[in-house]
Structure formats: structure tokens, C-alpha cells
Amino acid sequence: RYFHFCKLPGRVMGIRLLRFTSVVIIVLLLVAGALTALLPNVKDDKLPNLRREPKPQSQSALDSFTLIMQTYNRTDLLLKLLNHYQAIPHLHKVIVVWNNIGEKTPEEMWNSLGPHPVPVVFKVQSVNRMRNRLQNFPELETKAVLMMDDDTLVSAHDLAFAFSVWQQFPEHIVGFVPRKHISTPSGVYSYGSFELQNPGFGNGDQYSMVLIGAAFFHSGYLEDFQRQPEAVYALIDETQNCDDIAMNFLVAKHTGKPSGVFVKPVDIRNLEKDTNSGYSGMWHRAEHLLQRSYCVNKLVNIYDGMPLKYSNIMISQFGFPNYANHKNKM
Amino acid sequence: RYFHFCKLPGRVMGIRLLRFTSVVIIVLLLVAGALTALLPNVKDDKLPNLRREPKPQSQSALDSFTLIMQTYNRTDLLLKLLNHYQAIPHLHKVIVVWNNIGEKTPEEMWNSLGPHPVPVVFKVQSVNRMRNRLQNFPELETKAVLMMDDDTLVSAHDLAFAFSVWQQFPEHIVGFVPRKHISTPSGVYSYGSFELQNPGFGNGDQYSMVLIGAAFFHSGYLEDFQRQPEAVYALIDETQNCDDIAMNFLVAKHTGKPSGVFVKPVDIRNLEKDTNSGYSGMWHRAEHLLQRSYCVNKLVNIYDGMPLKYSNIMISQFGFPNYANHKNKM
């Protein structure tokens, strides 16, 4: 009989145990929930998601950059530039994107004239595409990418300073060639440079893009570029143009800020006249600028909005080239 | 008798209940701990702690700044500058720190010549102290402070641009007068400007301070200044100097970065020659510079280390004063 009595408390104990377990489980779920909610939000971290980067990052790779140079039909210029850029401070590696389909790279000649201070990798492409240079190359080990056109020479001082600026603005395209878009009453955007003026914008000028033909940017953006809408790739391939505009859209969308930081170059030169190939850059094509306005409007449609933002900040190196470069006649 | 039997399970239940409660309490403590640990760390938030600011912030107060100008013995210059600065865009209020102990302010005359676009508050001081201007004035309603010496005129363009730069670098002192310290083999620091060169530093120059006599900074730093070691106040009062060096130490300690961002002024002028008071600024005193080196070394002792960091970034307005200001002869 007391069993009967004693069973009751037993059952009660069973129920209590059940409650106990369930309560603990609920509380633990709450903990888990709280922790997850409080994890740093990827969107807050404005840098391209590095967890998407499986590559090992040696210490030197953190304090150095990779030069990516795409070349087509101007091997003489390429070799000249490879020689120029071999001695830049913090240069980790050079990746040459070889768009001369069916032609041999100068790799043999290059190596025969070694040793060279910095390794050069020739990436032979199967199709001559503007956007070949925007691949996420497995040889790329640094966070910082320096992308240079194959006809542009920038002084070692400018590059060293711009790299130090990029290290302070790693989420931006830090470069030497600013451009802008302007909106017109018709709602159509126009692409250009200093010759374009924003209606109603006061003193000075603004830029909303920094071209990647002479710029530092985060290698994570090359990964992000692989995940863009197909229409973006189609636009770039159709025009063989505008890959740099697309990159500015991508960065502006990612950061919600102006895509670029403009560093005033002390010495930047176009070497095109030095080539014997007789080949001149695609930006000489009559339709080049028109295409770029066309691309801005297309990209606004593709991304369903205009992410580009204006900046009027120009950065130069304090006290260089002369100690009084910060003075103005007073 | 069965009571005896039945008490046992009862006790067991009691113990289980005890266990249950204690486990839940422990788990809850864990949650609390986790939550606290995951709260945003004030040190991470590089801005001065705004929760310490009880003041109401009107919308305009968020997009505008307060001009704080300390004056001594140069009322004619003061009135000239008040007139100059009345029309600066985004100016919310002017606070005049009146260090002419025992003398009447020109408030009456100022008001008799009204109306004026921006309110001017005269803060009569009881002691003539350099650091009077670094109080956390109750009249200060904006996050941004523009501090100007009473003999310095900066153009409206420069001020408007520098304010837009400060909005992008609110944790820094954004101003027009860069200075630096250098360390010597003897371990003693020296204070100066372009005439000082860091041993072993290559091309260009660097700065490690931006003087607050012509600069924007966050009003929260005025609060932080009230919580410095007594020795800092003693040093400033003893020398009637170095309050600006102390502010750079404070900001550098707070951010762990260079304290200042240097904006290259297009038009900055010293109006001292225009005063009739015959009084000339304290920086003319023979000991002025020596005092400032002395202060740097004292502050290093007080703060037990050198927080100042170097920067070589110089910011100017893109396309101003002329659209080609970003070009260099190539």
C-alpha cells in the first residue's frame, strides 16, 4: 500500500526530472541563440570576408602585395615594366595575365636573364578577355593586390606611399586615376572625368570611382567578383571594357561608402608611345567613353540602383617631394 | 511507518529540487557572463564614449559644429574673427572663452550690432589659464568642435572641407597645423616641425600631432580631458603652454592611432600684425619651443610611455582651388 503512496512521489520525481531537463535544454537553446545573435555581423565587418580565403597567409604576405598585370600584344612594354617593378618595396609576387592567345610568353627569356628579386608567374589564358585579370588566382597569397595596366608606369615612391595608404583603407580601391559619374535630369547617367560637372555641386570636384588600372585593392574583392550576376560578365565581354567600373560598383555596394581613395601621384607615365608593336590601347577606340557611360547605366539596371558615392578627398604624401609641399602662399 | 519510507523520496526530491535550482542558476550565470563578454567593448568603439554626454543632440547639432575661441587682450582681432566666422557653413554656435580677467566682454557692443546669423556665448573666466578652452562647456551641443586661436584666420572653403573630412575621421584631430616629436639616441624627445628629421626616416616627412589652435575634434575629448592626471593640468598651468600637445597625447592613447589628420589649407593667415593691442602671442616667447619639448618629455613620464604615432597622410580637396590640382607635370 505504501508502494502506492511511494509511487506517487516517484512519478512526481519523474515529472520534475523531465521539467528539469527540458528547462535546462530551453535555457541552453537561449544561450546558443544569444551567442549567435551577438556574433560579429559579417555586414558590419566591411572587409571582404576573409573566411572565404582558404589561402595560407605568411607574415610577409600580410605586409606585402601582389602585382597583377594583364598584357596583350605589347611584350616589349611588358618586359620594360617587369624590370621597373621588380624592385618595388613590399612586392611579394608578379602575376602576368597573358592574353596573347596562341603566342608564347617571354617566360624563357625572362628566366634566362635572371636571377630576379621577385617571382613572376605567367598565367596563359585561353580566351582574350578584359576580365581575365579579375580571376581569384591560386598564386595570389597576399591580401593586397596592385593592379596595373601594361602601358602605365608609376614611380616606386608613389607605389610605396599608396600601399601604406591602402593599409589604412583596406576596404577601398586606393589608386591614382579618379573618375566620376553624373546623373542628368533625364535620369540617364554619364561617365567622365574633370570635364563633367555635377549640376549644383559647388567648389572643387568629386570622384565616384578609382580605376583599377593603377590601384591597390583587397584580394577578397577578386573572390567577390566571381559571384556577380551573369549579366555583369556578359556586359564586360560584350564591350571588352568596364571591368573596372564593375569593380567600383562591387566595392561601393560592399562598403556603402565611396569605392575609392584617390592618391595624388607624383610621377605616373603612359609608356604607350614606347611600344614597337604598333598596338595602341583599347581606350583609343572611338566608342570607348560612350561604352563606359553605357556600362554605368547597364550596371545600375543589373544591380537595381546606383551604389557609387562621391568623395572629394585627395591624399598626398606629407613633405614629399619637397618638405614644403604642405605650404601654400599665404 | 510508510511516512518513514515516503520521507526518503521526499528528501531525494528536495535534493533534486536543490540541484535543479542550482544548475539553472549556474546556467543563467553563464548566460549573463556570455552576454557581458559579448557586449561591444568601449575600447573597440574608438569614439569618445557618447553615453557620457547627457546633452540633447538636435538634428542640426549632429551635422554642425561649435566654434570655441579663447581670447586674451586682443578684442579688436576677436571682433574681426567673429565677423569672419559668422557665415561659415554648418556653424552651430560660437563660444568665446574670455581670459581677460577683470575686463568687460564686448558682448554689449556685439549685440548692439546684431542681428547675427549664429549665437555667440561669452564665457568669462576667473583665472587666465591656457586650458580654460578645454572645458566641457554646457553650451556645447554639437559632436564637432572647431577650436581656433584668436589670431588665426582660415578660409570658409578650408573649414567646410575640413569639417567634411572630420565627419569621415571623427576620432581624430582634423586640422591645418601638423607638428612632430622625434626621439634622440639619448632617449630624450624633441618637439618641432619640418626642421626636425627623424633619423633613418626616408623620403618625405611625418607628423605626430595636429595642433588644436586650428582644428576640428570630437567634443567627447573635452570630457576625457577632465579626467586626466593632475600632473597634466599642473604642467599646462606651470608653462601656460602645451594644452594642445596634451590633447594629442589623449587622442593617440584613446585611438591607438595617429592623433591627427592633416588637411592642407588653401588659405590660412595669421592676423597678429592687425591687432592694435600691441600684445603678441605667447608663441613668441623665447622659451616657447623649448617648453614644448619639455612638455613632450614630461607627458611621456606622466602617461608612462609615448602614445604619439606618425602619419604622412596629407588631405586636400580634389579639384580645388583649380580643377587640375590633382595633376602633376608628367
From TrEMBL, chains A, B:
Q: Which domain of life is it from?
A: Eukaryota
Q: Which reaction does it catalyse?
A: 3-O-(beta-D-GlcA-(1->3)-beta-D-Gal-(1->3)-beta-D-Gal-(1->4)-beta-D-Xyl)-L-seryl-[protein] + UDP-N-acetyl-alpha-D-glucosamine = 3-O-(alpha-D-GlcNAc-(1->4)-beta-D-GlcA-(1->3)-beta-D-Gal-(1->3)-beta-D-Gal-(1->4)-beta-D-Xyl)-L-seryl-[protein] + UDP + H(+)
Record flagged with keyword Signal: no
Identify the keywords attached in UniProt to this record, alphabetized.
Disulfide bond, Glycoprotein, Glycosyltransferase, Manganese, Membrane, Metal-binding, Signal-anchor, Transferase, Transmembrane, Transmembrane helix
Primary location recorded for the protein, binned into one broad class: endoplasmic reticulum
State the InterPro entries in the record.
Answer: Glycosyltrans_GT2/GT47, GT64_dom, Nucleotide-diphossugar_trans
Q: What is this protein called?
A: Exostosin-like 2
Organism of origin: Neodrepanis coruscans
Phylogenetic placement of the source organism: Eukaryota, Metazoa, Chordata, Craniata, Vertebrata
